[in-house]
């Protein structure tokens, strides 16, 4: 398993190099290596440091967050087609962005990114409160149903605000598509603590998730506190998926596909699925970003469009499999 993880990390490093090399303005690999460690403001240095390096770092952070969040969601809900959207995180973040744009007149990314994160936090908290009431509180099915209901309500609210204030759509539409080209490294620095905390909590839950996979009763018999584990997992998903959505907008299918690719290598052991999913999620986002820069003769395709093009057939194949459907 360790060897496979090292191979995945090596693949990620290759993707980082491709991300730094690829773009409308060609920069040789020798020049990239030179400007990485040089203090100058030549044209290649500006391209690498100001344009390609920020989106590469953002892509890695977003991919790690989505991969881990997706693996946690699939394990937490025992649903092989679950992704972070089950908890209404995307809808909550979109609602937060619209509140910032329409209600407060905030039009700059560094301003509304925090409202996106706050909206994701509130929606996830609401889902957990609803799903935790009554008998069988906190059960995966209850959380999934609560997330669907809350997400639908927030999507309706977002559509209503856009309809009432069409000017807000001009700013909102760039965020809602999902991309990693716009954020700056300063934003990543502000949100990095959330990524670190969320990732550490997620990775620490591997043994507990393995026990829960055997069933609630057997997991409890093995000494795993189900409410506490679910709360920690939900907290980690909130931080990770909320971070990714706030920084890059809704990017679909990465949180769905990365855990499945990880399990194809590791099997069901969550102690290995989680780190593999994190690395493979970063690989997927960077590859989609690089492909988006070269697939068109002029201009670029957003990351979310590429992940949807590749992820939609993957999703169809997945749901048609008898084991997944069961």
From TrEMBL:
The chain crosses the membrane at residues 54-73, 85-106, 112-131, 143-164, 231-253, 273-296, 303-320. It is found in: Cell membrane. Keywords: Cell membrane, Membrane, Transmembrane, Transmembrane helix, Transport. GO terms for cellular component: plasma membrane. GO terms for biological process: siderophore-iron import into cell. Belongs to the binding-protein-dependent transport system permease family. FecCD subfamily. This is ABC transporter permease. It comes from Prauserella flavalba.
């Amino acid at each position: 398993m360790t060897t496979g993880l090292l191979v995945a990390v090596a693949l990620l490093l290759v993707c980082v190099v491709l991300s730094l090399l690829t773009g409308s303005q060609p920069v040789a690999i020798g020049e990239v290596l030179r400007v990485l460690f040089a203090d100058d403001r030549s044209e290649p240095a500006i391209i690498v440091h100001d344009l390609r390096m920020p989106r590469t770092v953002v892509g890695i952070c977003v991919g790690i967050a989505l991969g881990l969040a997706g693996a946690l969601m699939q394990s937490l809900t025992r649903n092989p087609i679950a992704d972070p959207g089950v908890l209404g995180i995307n809808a909550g973040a979109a609602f937060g962005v619209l509140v910032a744009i329409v209600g407060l007149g905030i039009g700059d990314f560094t301003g509304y990114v925090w409202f996106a994160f706050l909206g994701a936090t509130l929606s996830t908290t609401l889902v957990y409160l609803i799903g935790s009431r009554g008998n069988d509180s906190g059960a995966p099915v209850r959380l999934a149903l609560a997330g669907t209901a809350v997400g639908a309500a927030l999507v309706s609210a977002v559509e209503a605000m856009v309809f009432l204030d069409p000017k807000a759509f001009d700013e909102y539409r760039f965020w809602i598509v999902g991309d990693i080209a716009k954020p700056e490294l300063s934003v990543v620095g502000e949100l990095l603590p959330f990524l670190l905390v969320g990732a550490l909590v997620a990775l620490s839950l591997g043994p507990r998730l393995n026990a829960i996979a055997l069933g609630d009763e057997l997991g409890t018999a093995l000494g795993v506190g189900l409410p506490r584990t679910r709360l920690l997992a939900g907290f980690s998903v909130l931080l990770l998926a909320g971070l990714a959505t706030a920084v890059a907008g809704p990017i679909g299918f990465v949180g769905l596909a990365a855990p499945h690719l990880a399990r194809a290598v590791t099997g069901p052991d969550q102690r290995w699925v989680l780190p593999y999913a994190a690395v493979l999620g970063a690989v997927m986002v960077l590859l989609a970003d690089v492909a988006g820069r070269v697939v068109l003769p002029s201009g670029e395709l957003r990351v979310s469009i590429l992940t949807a093009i590749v992820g939609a057939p993957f999703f169809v194949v997945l749901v048609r499999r008898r084991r997944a459907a069961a």
